[in-house]
Amino acid sequence: MEVASAYCALPRTEALRRALSGLRNDQAVDDLLFLESWEADPLPGAGPALRVGQLRRANPGLAAEIRAELRRGRPLTPTEREALGSAAAPR
Asked: CA 35, CA 47: separation in Å to the nearest integer?
């Protein structure tokens, strides 16, 4: 079942560009583009929310970096990425 979506077919963040650079699987690319678009502008409904929840659980570091980059309006520095990663690590 296809979800009607208005998400961007090109990455908006440097975090997603890096993640996509090594992917050759169209479904994985589509999933990560959907995740980034959701972080920028969430779609209503339970279906999209469940999909994003699964994507966040599968890619917690990437999801956090995308959110941080969208909040700041610029790519994160290596130091900021490192700090973000250590803050998301389980204790």
From this structure: 13
